[in-house]
Amino acid sequence: MTRRLFHEDPYLREFTSRVVRRFDAGGRPAVVLDATAFYPTGGGQPHDTGTLNGARVVDVVEEGEDIVHVLDKPLDGDDVRGAVDWPRRMDHLQQHHGQHLLSEAFVRVCGAETASFHLGAETSSIDLATDRVSPDDAASAETMANDIVLEDREVAISWATREEVSELPMRKPPQVEGKIRIVRVADFDCSACCGTHPRRTGEVGPILVLGCERGKASARVTFVCGRRAIEWARRDLAVLKAAGAKLSAGREDLESAVERILGERAAAHKALQAAEKELAGHAAAALAAEGSKVVSKVFENRGLKFLQAVANDIVSRPGRVAVLGGTGETSSIVLARSKDVALDLKPVAAEAFAHLQGRGGGSPFFQQGGGPGKDVAGAVRLALSKLA
Fold this sequence. Notes:
With about 400 residues, the chain is α+β, with helices and mostly antiparallel strands. About 35% of the residues lie in helices and about 30% in strands. It is built from nine helices and 20 strands. The chain has helices at about 5-10, 85-110, 135-150, 160-165, 225-245, 250-290, 305-315, 345-355, 375-385; strands at about 5, 15-25, 30-35, 35, 50, 55-65, 65-70, 80-85, 115-120, 125-130, 155-160, 180-185, 190, 205-215, 220-225, 295-300, 320-325, 330-335, 360-365, 365-370. The strands form five sheets. A six-stranded antiparallel beta barrel has the order 2-3-7-6-5-8. Strands 16-17-18-20-19 form a five-stranded mixed sheet, with helices on both faces. Strands 9-10-15-14 form a four-stranded antiparallel sheet. A hairpin with a 2-residue loop joins strand 2 and strand 3.
């Protein structure tokens, strides 16, 4: 049985211990110690990292009463000096306790119970057992949790039996047997948890809710705490400043500046569409005037929509077949025929699409598609040869 030093003192950074078992774990050396300050993966919280006698700890897992340390190289000696990666431990401590505060806040704000918790490398998330969580609910829960942080309330940790737990104001009654570890925030939260937690709520630092995605019967709240929240806010501020500088707008005017630009963009897009439609009409008329039953052309820097408009105009006349190509970031090709022409364009188009290393589809009288291949002229010639 490994003595859990991280439960006795979550602030313990260095410790001494002895090896009680050595073995191979998936091709890597692993050891079990008689005592450890390394927290194993569990309860939504990732494992600690650090070193044992200079060997890097790459994984920590709980196996029954033992805690297994997976290393990057064999461990020298049986007497061990361990060092926990403190910035990682403190980060996990902040995120995990921040989750406790947010979970209780969501219960108080909108009755939303936490179903699961995940502590990620960049953000953390809570899955709430309801889809009835509004943006206002998330904002209120965030404010409540931050108020508890600012009040710097005591965090008390104790062990209790199931009978003793039944007398406590548990947020979620535990389903385990034996001694149960209880984490309590004065006059706010009471939960069963084996993770690492601070002495006082103030150490969590700021709590920032990044978003709330609603599912069919649940809601996922993404958040960051402590230094992560500061870094996130710093990056957001940098983005806002950069955007404001480019738009010559301050923070208060930035939203209206963006709306103005989006309006101008929509108007320009509408005008461009009208111009392209007119240009497509002229192009179709010029091709139709050639008098050929089968007309073809490759248009530079034109996409599918333009080709569709030209082709539709051409085949609106009887007895016509159009084979059109367009160049650009993606090569495009359109094959069309008038309804009075008895011709299935599918097999012809399939070979043209393949020539462009792409694909397409449509009906027997109208095919469109493209691909990354650049030989648009070759694809058009291939289609024409099949129509000859």
